[in-house]
Amino acid sequence: MVIVLAWRLLTLVVSLFVSSLLVFGFMQVLPGDPARVALGVNASEEAVARLRADFGLDQPLDARYVDWIGGLLRFDLGESYISRAPIGPQLLDRLAVTGWLVGAAMIIAVVIALPIGTLMAVRHRHVSGLVLSALSQIGVAIPAFLAGLLLITLFAVHLGWLPANGWTPPARDPVMFLRQLVLPALSLGLVQGAVLSRYVRSAVLDVMREDYVRTARAKGLGPMRALWRHGLRNAAIPVVTVLALQLATLLIGAVVVERVFVIPGLGSLLLDAVANRDLIVVQDVVMVLVLAVLLVNMLVDVLYSVIDPRLATGGRR
């Protein structure tokens, strides 16, 4: 286990280094001048040159990359080109907002997918299983932002049960926080739950065809009991893999959903920074998202060894 963890940490570090090079490189090829955007089109060339020097944009690319990475390692994310405010505090605030949204959406997706996906597999030869499978296909085809608009139309406009948008910190008003979290979390969680249920169905079907499950059923166990006692552990491995992939999908989906529901999360911060040509904010936000995805992938790799210890020893006991 120690060797596996050490190898995963090394892989994480190398992946972060390569990702930082790619993110920094992409930012440099984008058209436009951040200093010109910050000062406006009527600013003089001398004022633009002074601001470029203040931003460090007149330095060579390698020096700017080293300065940026060095700041990240010191937990100094720099200052915004537009507002000149420190990026770190506002990024942490936005990260907490997105964390609540993505976490709630993931819980909804898992709560929906596990029972429905298992039922679709167990009842795959029955009408109920076919109906659930058809509904999951419809859910897969619906984008998260469209699901959000439909939920707003139904529950906020017509029924008036929940607010259509906005965000209240949980410490300020827990009840309003939950009311404002329900619709955006559902718009993400329902779509991802439909996707995940398809993978759960496939994994459970594969396990149900294994000899040890058929033997358990031959001994008198029902399909659900045989699956619960002998199959769920093996079915969990591909499902955990998909969960890690879905986190990245949820983070990407949150960018659009936060706009739909006017939520001040990382997605809104990223889109505003792109629109304002605030490249340092874009770089920092993207690296935070990359770090989150890589950390989850590393955690999943470790979980593989917990679920099935043979994976940590190459299949040897």
UniProtKB/TrEMBL annotation:
Matching Pfam families: BPD_transp_1, BPD_transp_1_N
A GO CC term assigned to this protein in UniProt: plasma membrane
InterPro entries membership: BPD_transp_1_N, MetI-like, MetI-like_sf
Primary location recorded for the protein, binned into one broad class: membrane
Topological relation to the membrane, as annotated: Multi-pass membrane protein
Membrane-spanning intervals of the chain: 7-27, 100-122, 134-161, 181-200, 235-257, 285-307
Presence of keyword Cell membrane: yes
A GO term, aspect molecular function: dipeptide transmembrane transporter activity
Protein known as: Putative ABC transporter permease protein
Organism encoding this protein: Kineosphaera limosa NBRC 100340
